[in-house]
């Protein structure tokens, strides 16, 4: 444990300071659950999720922002969790791959997200180490653009590297997701 | 989830079993493993390509925050044995080497020390404080550097930087070249590449101080090979101590004898063919080899602690996780020494530096041809740049032998000569990469286009004229292997021609040229020994086939489910799905009832290959098929007793075993299991019925074949190459799951495109790596890879498990198809493509738009 | 990542105080998309990070009365890309933004951070140079304006002092009859450019070229304008001949560095090609606008 002198001070103005190699306390919402943790200033959001919250579904492929494997959703935007400090994420809302499916209190899956279903149907991935990043990227992208063209899909997923597939199956998966989600919306509209 | 038609899963695009966990973030990769009390490792690595280590001072680093221990090469020498060659070819020298550099560093990134601390960040902090004084030596970087007679040997015991030389001749080569109307020669060079799975290497040595077993969690393609290699390298004790320990532990000796017997079952004849002169040569060059061999062997037999390798989900490998890493040995050794768990997850910079690199070869090819295009003979000269440290267990030597066998390709070539040289250099370790022999296909298929152009023939015409056609089979390649009727290369080419219509394209190309646009088309055809006929492995190196047999164990569990145990190490190939498909079809049960167990050396059958060599379908799948059948027989026997019926009258439909036509009076697998368990006096949680099968491919063998066709458009102003269309006609026999086959092929093609247009492991003339991050090592993204059209032939054969490999072919076919297309697009400008890496600036140099610059190596 | 002390000031004054206190020992952390990779690779070891993301008032895009636009220090690429005012008032900025990295990078990275980082291969410094942007730098007890031409002083270095914070970048109003274009080539989509240019062309009432800016990235140790080519264009009738001549001058006068992505000769050549294309593209837009 770190000595008290090495922990953060939080001033009345809402500023936050941690001494060198010290810690600060952060509060954020991860997959719908509020968490408060004392973290080292240099801890990345990715390491925070993996090591402190045991959410190991978020993967690290390069730790310098290029591969996209670590992509998570921060306040509705896809971001590289390796290029964000946990302290920077203080106060934010995070969704990781673990939060995509609907689960019960014990974390058992009740139903998977249409994007997950689509990727399974389309045989989107192989080793799937890259999958969490693609899924989180696609989630945000389809939110902004629910009816993309294939060219747009290509462009939007091009910030994520996959070494196994050659991408065609992932693109097909996103297209399948578009169909499933559109059908779900139609059903939803009819129900309403 | 049931998608099979009429009880048949094979051939269906069944959804992947793996996805249920992998798409929900519930997979378990090595980086996710962290036992209580784990310390973290960071390596201190050499900044120089070639240097003596003058001194290492880690006194400051040792006192840094959170540091548990620091080990240097000198200390590792006391804890381990060096890596010694696993096999040597006649005339080959493979330098023994230590897990950490001792006295000398041999490439940028060579691990010099390891720091253990309470977190990876603290270990890295301290690693920056280790002070090392180096005395720089002249680096040997390129093949030419290494071949220079005055280049200082990187491995003094070798006497030079040439580690292996061989000359192989088949047929009357001089005669063929004398008789020929024309002889064409060209030299092709390929750059260094890196496999780059998205998950880096990594391991966790989990030490339970009470146990004599260390659980070694690793991202590995070959768990058993890793286990035994690590056991040998970390079993460091004096021979005297070993012998004493052994005398006191006869049980251990007996267990080893049993294990060895099982591992070599049925392979004795094959092993007898092996040539031991390589080993003798090795020992003569470096007599210490004998000492190390003895110490490792006795140490392994008597070690107090033994590693058990465990791998769960693996984030790709492409060959890079088959070889045993020096870091693995360091982590295991220090974990045992400290008696606590140690974790090392490689970062990307390390992976690009020391995670393994490949290709880096030069091939000169000469064809002796008649004016009508008939090939009379072929000569080749191959030089491979092995880098500093030889791969373990397989190094360039073995891959050169595969090239030797495959170079003549699918063509009638009756005279062939190959001269081979393997050199050492101050670069990273050469390891197998998806089709480790692929450059034979690249250079040959490239050269065929050159010959066709010189003769004024079309590239496809020349190929078809010389290729073995189905009606001529069986035949024998001049290098040895039998080509049975599954060698359908010519059929794939013919089909590709129909689909691609090269003649129509030529007109379009002409027209485009007149308007300043550069269009091109390229073909490439290959066959791949997946599984290959039995005489294939003998042609590669006699005896090597002995290592390749694969056992599948299968059991009916007490609850009626079926468990398959395999030595395969799936890392993206979807074995859980395909093996369940194969077994379910054999057993007549729903797939969901079948579970695959892999990755733990404790409960999987031994096999040295793990997953590699496009063997998962042909060999692994075959083994599952036949073991399932054996299990089915036993289940039916048991059911016949239960049903008081004749076995021959029974059938299994959807997991219900019953007399044909009387499904209502059937027994479930669970009921049969219960009966078998009580008959066998089981207590309920052990398998009720077990069966196994060891398989080394069908007697007839079998080849996977394909033709790739690539279209390009080149921007004459910028040199950018785009691929408007890409087509593959492939024949891998019966497809267990077409969606999985297609994924394998497309992924391979993407890597081949990456090699030509984007990726290069780039060393400067001083051996500094210029591509150690993903900002510099450019893997293609979704924007760079076109849609890849696939056409399957699925040629039937009398082979029962007619599954042929598809893991590597995509990466083999793409570089020649693409480079052929590029030359085709630029042919009217007099361009000849002799290098594999063609970034935009190189294209403009070739077209004469800009002046060439000194090529980087 | 090396250790550092983390500071998240809640006001501008507090931020400036921290900067003046730590001087050389502090780095401003904006989106972190350039700084954190460098730290992750242990190529940068700042002792203090001053995270300005929560400083009020910096996350703003402001139109001025003359039709210019100011972008505040914490405005991300994505926010700017989606802002209507950016498209309307600074079409060159709008054209450049989609070329900056990939979506996830743009969601965090800031426009001002990119300018402060001054990567010679980055799009925005060249855009700022082309548009004659003004930089507003503040420190404890002082504020100053720096013209783009004086801002980029070398490879990854700017005119900013260690205790200064770049508050905002201001773009002047676009002249009438102006067309703009950003052209670049990069090895892969989303990569930093091998070479690229941000161009503007303004016509006079007679339809002749009144002024132009040809501002290159990936062509030197900073973003650079090729003034000889701009001068040669002045007074010319816009068309292939003039563009060709400008391209020739560009290729001749640039002396770009060499790396694995392109030789010097290649970058020179392509800079010319891009000049031609960008000029034609920019002129096309004026046609449409007219
Ligand atoms: C994979 C990848 C690809 C990329 N591709 C591109 C690309 O194609 N083109 C491109 O232009 N960029 C690219 N970038 C960089 C990206 O645009 C960054 O967002 C941008 O360069 C920096 O912005 P930032 O807010 O992240 O700055 P930070 O990383 O937070 O800071 C960068 C530097 O600027 C200083 N700084 C930041 N804000 C201020 C301020 N207000 N006052 C004074 N100093 C300040 C910091 O101290 C630091 O030195 C890429 C980045 C990645 C990781
Ligand atoms: S791990 Fe974050 S982008 Fe690669
Ligand atoms: S599926 Fe393996 S990296 Fe994408």
Please tell me about this protein's structure.
The complex is a heterotrimer of chains A (192), B (857) and C (290). With 192 residues, chain A is α+β, with helices and mostly antiparallel strands. Chain A folds into two domains: 16-99, Roll (Ubiquitin-like (UB roll)); 102-191, [2Fe-2S]-binding domain (DNA polymerase, domain 1). Helix content of chain A is 32%, strand content 19%. Chain A contains five helices and nine strands. Chain B is an alpha+beta fold. In chain B, 33% of the residues lie in helices and 21% in strands. Chain B has 26 helices and 28 strands. In chain B, the strands form seven sheets. A seven-stranded mixed beta sheet of chain B has the order 3-5-1-12-9-10-11, with helices on both faces. In chain B, strands 7-15-14-13-8 form a five-stranded mixed beta sheet. A four-stranded mixed beta sheet of chain B has the order 18-26-27-28, sandwiched between helices. Chain B is globular, with a radius of gyration of 28 Å. In chain B, 61% of the residues are buried. Chain C is of the alpha+beta class. In chain C, β8 (152-154) and β9 form a beta hairpin. At the A-B interface, α2, α3, α4 and α5 of A face α1 and α24 of B. The structure holds flavin-adenine dinucleotide and FE2/S2 (inorganic) cluster (2 copies). One FE2/S2 (inorganic) cluster sits between chains A (125-130, 162-165) and B (198, 316, 572).
């Amino acid at each position: 444990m770190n000595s008290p002198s090495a922990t953060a001070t939080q001033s009345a103005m809402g500023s936050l300071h941690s001494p060198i190699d010290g810690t600060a306390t952060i509060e954020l919402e991860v997959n719908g659950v509020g968490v408060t943790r004392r973290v080292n200033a240099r801890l990345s959001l990715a390491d925070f999720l993996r090591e402190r919250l045991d959410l190991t579904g978020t993967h690290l492929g390069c730790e310098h922002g290029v591969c996209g494997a670590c992509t998570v959703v921060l306040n509705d935007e896809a971001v590289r969790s390796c290029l964000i400090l946990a302290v920077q994420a203080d106060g934010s809302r995070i969704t990781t791959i673990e939060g995509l499916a609907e689960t019960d209190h014990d974390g058992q899956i009740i139903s998977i997200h249409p994007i997950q279903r689509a990727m399974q149907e389309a045989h989107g991935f192989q080793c799937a180490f890259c999958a969490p990043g693609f899924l989180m990227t696609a989630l945000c992208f389809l939110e902004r653009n629910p009816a993309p063209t294939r060219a747009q899909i290509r462009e939007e997923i091009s910030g994520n590297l996959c070494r196994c597939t050659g991408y065609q199956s992932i693109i097909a998966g996103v297209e399948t997701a578009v169909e499933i989600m559109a059908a779900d919306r139609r059903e939803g509209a009819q129900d309403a | 989830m049931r998608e099979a038609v009429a009880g048949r899963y094979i051939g269906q695009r069944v959804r992947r079993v793996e996805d249920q966990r992998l798409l929900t973030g519930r997979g378990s990769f090595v980086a996710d493993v962290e036992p209580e009390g784990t310390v973290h490792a960071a390596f201190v690595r050499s900044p120089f390509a070639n240097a003596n280590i003058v001194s290492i001072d880690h006194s400051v680093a040792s006192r840094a925050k959170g540091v548990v221990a620091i080990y240097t090469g000198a200390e590792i020498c006391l804890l381990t044995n060096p890596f010694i060659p696993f096999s040597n070819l006649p005339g080959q020298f493979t330098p023994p080497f230590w897990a950490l550099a001792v006295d000398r560093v041999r490439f940028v990134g060579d691990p010099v020390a390891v720091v253990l601390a309470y977190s990876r960040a603290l270990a890295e902090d301290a690693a920056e404080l280790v002070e090392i004084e180096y005395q720089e030596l002249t680096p040997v970087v390129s093949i030419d550097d290494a071949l220079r007679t005055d280049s200082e040997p990187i491995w003094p015991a070798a006497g030079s930087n040439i580690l292996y030389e061989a000359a192989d001749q088949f047929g009357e080569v001089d005669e063929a070249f004398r008789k020929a109307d024309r002889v064409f020669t060209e030299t092709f060079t390929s750059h260094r590449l890196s496999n780059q799975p998205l998950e880096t290497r990594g391991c966790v040595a989990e030490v339970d101080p009470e146990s004599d077993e260390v659980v070694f969690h690793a991202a590995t393609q070959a768990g058993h090979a890793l286990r035994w290699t690590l056991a040998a390298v970390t079993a460091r004790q004096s021979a005297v101590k070993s012998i004493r320990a052994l005398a006191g532990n006869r049980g251990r000796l007996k267990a080893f004898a049993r294990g060895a017997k099982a591992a070599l079952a049925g392979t004795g004849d094959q092993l007898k063919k092996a040539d031991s002169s390589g080993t003798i040569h090795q020992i003569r060059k470096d007599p210490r080899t004998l000492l190390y061999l003895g110490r490792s062997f006795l140490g392994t037999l008597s070690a107090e602690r033994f590693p058990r390798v465990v791998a769960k989900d693996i984030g790709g490998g492409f060959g890079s996780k088959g070889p045993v890493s020096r870091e693995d040995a360091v982590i295991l050794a220090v974990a045992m020494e400290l008696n606590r768990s140690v974790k090392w997850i490689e970062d990307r910079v390390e992976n690009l530096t020391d995670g393994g690199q490949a290709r880096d070869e030069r091939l000169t090819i000469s064809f002796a041809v008649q004016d009508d295009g008939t090939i009379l003979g072929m000569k080749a000269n191959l030089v491979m740049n092995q880098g500093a440290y030889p791969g373990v267990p397989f190094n360039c030597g073995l891959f050169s032998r595969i090239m030797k066998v495959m170079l003549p390709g699918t063509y009638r070539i009756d005279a062939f000569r190959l001269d081979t040289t393997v050199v050492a250099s101050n670069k990273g370790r050469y390891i197998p990469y998806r089709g480790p022999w692929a450059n034979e296909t690249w250079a040959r298929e490239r050269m065929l286009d050159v010959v066709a152009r010189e003769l004024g023939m079309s590239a496809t015409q020349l190929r078809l004229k010389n290729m073995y056609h189905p009606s001529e089979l069986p035949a024998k390649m001049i290098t040895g292997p039998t080509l049975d009727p599954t060698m359908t290369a010519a059929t794939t080419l013919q089909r590709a021609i129909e689909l691609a219509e090269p003649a129509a394209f030529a007109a379009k190309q002409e027209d485009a040229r007149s308007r300043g646009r550069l269009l091109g088309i390229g073909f490439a055809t290959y066959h791949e020994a997946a599984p290959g006929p039995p005489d294939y492995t003998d042609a590669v190196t006699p005896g090597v086939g002995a290592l390749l047999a694969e056992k599948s164990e299968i059991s009916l569990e007490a609850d009626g489910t079926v468990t398959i145990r395999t030595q395969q190490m799936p890392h993206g190939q979807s074995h859980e799905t395909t093996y369940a498909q194969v077994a379910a079809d054999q057993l007549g049960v729903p797939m969901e009832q079948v579970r695959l167990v892999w990755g733990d050396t404790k409960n999987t059958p031994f096999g040295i290959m793990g997953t590699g060599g496009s063997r998962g379908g042909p060999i692994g799948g075959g083994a599952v098929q036949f073991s399932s059948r054996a299990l089915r027989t036993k289940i039916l026997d048991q059911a016949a007793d239960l049903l008081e019926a004749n076995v021959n009258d029974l059938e299994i439909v959807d997991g219900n075993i019953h007399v044909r036509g009387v499904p209502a009076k059937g027994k479930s697998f669970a009921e049969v299991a219960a009966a078998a368990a009580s008959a066998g006096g089981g207590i309920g949680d052990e398998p009720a019925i077990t069966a196994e099968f060891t398989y080394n491919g069908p007697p007839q063998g079998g080849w996977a074949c394909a033709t790739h066709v690539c279209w390009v458009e080149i921007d004459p102003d910028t040199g950018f190459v785009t691929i408007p269309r890409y087509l593959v006609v492939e024949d891998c026999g019966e497809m267990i799951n077409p969606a999985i086959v297609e994924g394998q092929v497309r992924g391979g093609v993407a890597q081949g495109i990456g090699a030509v247009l984007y990726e290069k492991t780039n060393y400067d003339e001083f051996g500094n790596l210029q591509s150690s991050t993903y900002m510099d090592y450019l893997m293609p993204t979704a924007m760079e890879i076109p849609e890849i059209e696939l056409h399957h032939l699925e040629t039937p054969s009398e082979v029962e498990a007619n599954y042929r490999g598809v893991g590597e072919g995509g990466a083999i076919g793409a570089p020649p198809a693409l480079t052929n297309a590029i030359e085709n697009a630029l042919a009217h400008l007099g361009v000849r493509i002799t290098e594999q890496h063609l970034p935009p600036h190189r294209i403009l140099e070739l077209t004469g738009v800009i002046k060439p610059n000194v090529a980087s190596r | 990542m090396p250790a550092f002390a983390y500071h998240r000031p809640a006001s501008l004054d507090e931020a400036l105080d921290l900067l003046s206190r730590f001087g050389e020992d502090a780095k401003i952390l904006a989106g972190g998309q350039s700084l954190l990779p460098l730290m992750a690779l242990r190529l940068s070891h700042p002792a203090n990070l001053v995270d300005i993301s929560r400083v009020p008032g910096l996350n703003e895009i402001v139109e001025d009365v003359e039709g210019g636009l100011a972008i505040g220090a914490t405005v991300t690429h994505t926010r700017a890309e989606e802002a209507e005012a950016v498209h309307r008032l600074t079409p060159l900025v709008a054209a450049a933004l989609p070329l900056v990295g990939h979506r996830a990078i743009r969601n965090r990275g800031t426009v001002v951070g990119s300018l402060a980082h001054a990567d010679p291969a980055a799009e925005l410094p060249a855009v700022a140079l082309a548009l004659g942007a003004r930089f507003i730098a503040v420190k404890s007890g002082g504020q100053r304006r720096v013209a783009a031409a004086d801002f980029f002083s070398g490879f990854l270095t700017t005119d900013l002092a260690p205790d200064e914070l770049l508050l905002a970048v201001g773009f002047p109003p676009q002249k009438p009859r102006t067309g703009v274009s950003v052209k670049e080539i990069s090895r892969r989509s989303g990569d930093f450019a091998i070479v690229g240019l941000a161009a503007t062309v303004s016509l006079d009432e007679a339809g002749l070229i009144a002024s132009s800016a040809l501002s290159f990235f990936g062509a030197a140790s900073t973003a650079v304008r090729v003034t000889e080519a701009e001068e040669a264009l002045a007074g010319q009738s816009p068309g292939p001949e003039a563009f060709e001549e400008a391209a020739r001058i560009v290729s001749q006068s640039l002396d770009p560095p060499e790396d694995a992505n392109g030789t010097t000769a290649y970058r020179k050549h392509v800079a010319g090609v891009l000049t031609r294309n960008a000029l034609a593209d920019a002129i096309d837009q004026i046609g449409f606008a007219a």
